[in-house]
Amino acid sequence: MLPALNPLCHLVKGNRREEIVRLAVGLEADLVVVGTAAHWGIADLVQESAGAAIAKSLDCSVLVVKPPGFVTPVAVEEA
Fold first, then answer.
1. Domain total for the chain?
2. Cα separation of 30 and 70, whole Å?
3. Residue 45 is inside which H or E element, if any?
């Protein structure tokens, strides 16, 4: 039998990248779930998304969830 899932939700103030990482490390989290949105244009060239920055900063699993209707700008070429 699988153990029951007991998810917790935390709301903190401050810089989202720093505070999510600080909270996850302090809680010894196994999984962090963050939402993200598509960004376009020059902003993407100079600033990494919060979801990507958080994923790079943690040793635990990070699930980055895209909004409904998101269409990736990456095209896959057929071989």
1. 1
2. 26
3. helix 42-46
